[in-house]
What does this fold into?
Amino acid sequence: MGLMRAALLWASDNRWLRERATRFGFVRRAVTRFMPGEDLDSALAAARSLGFGAVFTRLGENLTTLGEAQAVADHYREVLERVRAGSFDVEISVKLTQLGLDLSREECERHLHGLIQRARELGNWVWIDMEQTAYTDVTLDIYRRARERFPNTGLCIQSYLYRTEKDLESLIALGSGVRLVKGAYSEPPDKAYPKKADVDESFFRLAVVLLGPEARAKNVRAIFGTHDPALIRRIEEYGRAQKLPAHALEFQMLYGIRRAEQERLSNAGYKFRVLISYGEAWWAWYMRRLAERPANVLFVIKTTFAR
Ligand SMILES: Cc1cc2nc3c(=O)[nH]c(=O)nc-3n(C[C@H](O)[C@H](O)[C@H](O)COP(=O)(O)OP(=O)(O)OC[C@H]3O[C@@H](n4cnc5c(N)ncnc54)[C@H](O)[C@@H]3O)c2cc1C
It folds into this structure.
């Protein structure tokens, strides 16, 4: 792992640094490139102005009480209601740790099922983010239980993990919603491919499975969450070779990253959504965005001094 990436991932977990750095105006200003604001109104305004469908996720830190998990669940309920009232094309994506997984699995599942149930009544979807490998098994387990009861839910899987190929087989059998990404955390080499080229190749192999006959027969909703131009091109070419119509492919990207490509994919007839993160707890998340592309650090420096 590059030194810069390792340092940024270390910073993402460092409380001392977070408490100090987030007070600086220039850090807060730089964050606006990736986050329209800290509250739901800012996210809704961004979704409207972009003109794409969106997925909302509220940034959060580790919870210490079940009351905080309740507040997160209440917030997402409010999102579902406001999206419906304002006719926004917005789905939600939640982290199980934000719904209290570390404190009580039972409460976490209760919140999750409540949200999916309400989303179903409103004709909407709930996605589950994938977090660090310590949570992979339990996340899959909770997802499978939710999927048995509700059709309107999907799970994120990470191509950097060796295990994902096997996990995907079982998800396809469920006829699930699957959002494929590379993976954003720092994982050991016995669990995740250390080389980027291998992560990319794994992504493409998994994409081929997601577009294959079994997944289609099971009505899997497959989403490719990447900004990688080479991978996107390969997936588009594969789709064309399989004679899949453009609208059979769904891409998603993060707010603020590769906007021209977002327009292009949407105009080309693919399903496209932008994932918008917002909230006060943005430090760890922002450090991970910088770690994905250390050139962004240069951008931050330029933003800082260009005023
Ligand atoms: C919709 C969506 C949902 C996600 N959900 C999860 C999740 O639940 N769990 C999880 O672990 N990860 C999640 N991720 C993050 C993901 O794992 C990657 O860390 C992230 O998408 C960067 O990988 P990439 O595929 O874009 O490829 P990369 O190889 O990292 O990047 C390819 C190219 O994209 C551009 N790019 C990528 N990142 C940036 C950036 N930060 N700033 C500017 N340009 C950039 C650059 O041009 C870069 O060369 C999600 C990503 C998306 C898009």
